[in-house]
C-alpha cells in the first residue's frame, strides 16, 4: 500500500471534491445542497483481504496495484483497516510461521471485524484441510479470541461462528446484526451508522407500508421498519436472506415479510406478469405502499425496476455509483423531485463515494 498523508487538510479537500461531484451530477435536477458525512481518517475499514507472498523463506501479507499483478506490495500493517485487524495481523503471522499445519499452502487471508469488537479470519488453502489443521486452527481461535474459517477446494471448515456480530446505534436504539462470512456488508462501520441515521430521518414517521429492494442482511431494514406499518423486503442472495431473517428475529422486528426475489422478479410480480411460488401466502394487494427504499448494486436499477419505483410517493435511494444514480433520477425526474441528498464517505482516500437521495412526488 502506498503511503497516505492521513492529514485532515488533505482529507477535507478530497471530501469536498466528492461533494462537488455529486452537486454537478444532480445539478440538472435542481437538487438541494447535499449533506456531507465524513469518515475517520484511519482505522475505518472493518474488512481486509490479503494474498500471501513468499520472500526470505517467510510468507508476508501482500497486495497488488490494479495495473501490476506481478509485483507485490508487502504489508506489515494496514492503517485504513480497523484497530482489531491491525492487532490481529502480526499475531496471525506469528502463528502461521510457528505452525506448518497452518502455513502449508496458505495463499490468502481475509479479516472481518465489527465496531462491537467481534472478529473472524478466513484462511484459504491450495490443499485439503486435515485433522492437524483442525487442531492448530482451534488453538488459534482460542488464543486470538476469534472465529476461524478454513477454505480449500470444495470444503469449508468453521471454528466458532461463520459470522461476526455488529451493534449499531440508530435514533437512540441499538440494533444487532449478524454479518456472514463471504456476504456483502458495509465496510466502513462508522459511516454506515451515519448513513442509517440519515435514512431513518429522511423516511420519517409514516402510517403506510414500505417496499425495500436489495435488502441484503437487513442493514437498513431493521431501523426503517420502525418508521412504517409493514415492510415487504426482497433479496436474491440466500446467505443474506438467512442473515436478515436472523437479524429480524434477534431484534424483535415483526412487521417485515422477506422474500428471496430479485428486484426484476418482484417488478414482474407487482405488474402481474407472472406468479412466483416464493410469494405464496403473501397478498401483494394488501399492502399500501407509500415509499420504496432501494440500495442497488453499482449498475443501478434496471429501467423496469426504475419505472416501478415511480408508483411510490417517496423513493429513498442509497447509491454506490453516482453515475447510475443520476441516470435513474433522469428517468424519474418528470414525476419526482429531489428533496434531500447526501454524500457518505464510505471509502476515504479513494475516488469511490456513496450517496443518498430522497425523491418525492411532484
Automatic annotation (TrEMBL):
Broad enzyme group: transferase
Family note: Belongs to the class I-like SAM-binding methyltransferase superfamily. RNA M5U methyltransferase family. TrmA subfamily.
EC number: 2.1.1.35
Positions contributing to S-adenosyl-L-methionine binding: 186, 214, 219, 235, 295
Pfam family of the protein (one): tRNA_U5-meth_tr
Enzymatic reactions: uridine(341) in tmRNA + S-adenosyl-L-methionine = 5-methyluridine(341) in tmRNA + S-adenosyl-L-homocysteine + H(+); uridine(54) in tRNA + S-adenosyl-L-methionine = 5-methyluridine(54) in tRNA + S-adenosyl-L-homocysteine + H(+)
Entry GO MF terms: rRNA binding; tRNA (uracil(54)-C5)-methyltransferase activity, S-adenosyl methionine-dependent; tRNA binding
Coiled coil: none
Top-rank taxon, per record: Bacteria
InterPro entries linked to this entry: MeTrfase_TrmA_AS, MeTrfase_TrmA_CS, SAM-dependent_MTases_sf, TrmA_MeTrfase, U5_MeTrfase_fam
Entries under PANTHER family matching the protein: TRNA/TMRNA (URACIL-C(5))-METHYLTRANSFERASE (PTHR47790), TRNA_TMRNA (URACIL-C(5))-METHYLTRANSFERASE (PTHR47790:SF2)
Organism: Pseudomonas helleri
Catalytic residues as annotated in Swiss-Prot or TrEMBL: 320, 354
Listed SUPFAM superfamilies: S-adenosyl-L-methionine-dependent methyltransferases
Gene Ontology CC entries for this record: cytosol
Descriptive protein name: tRNA/tmRNA (uracil-C(5))-methyltransferase
Keywords: Methyltransferase, S-adenosyl-L-methionine, Transferase, tRNA processing
Described function: Dual-specificity methyltransferase that catalyzes the formation of 5-methyluridine at position 54 (m5U54) in all tRNAs, and that of position 341 (m5U341) in tmRNA (transfer-mRNA).
GO biological process: tRNA methylation
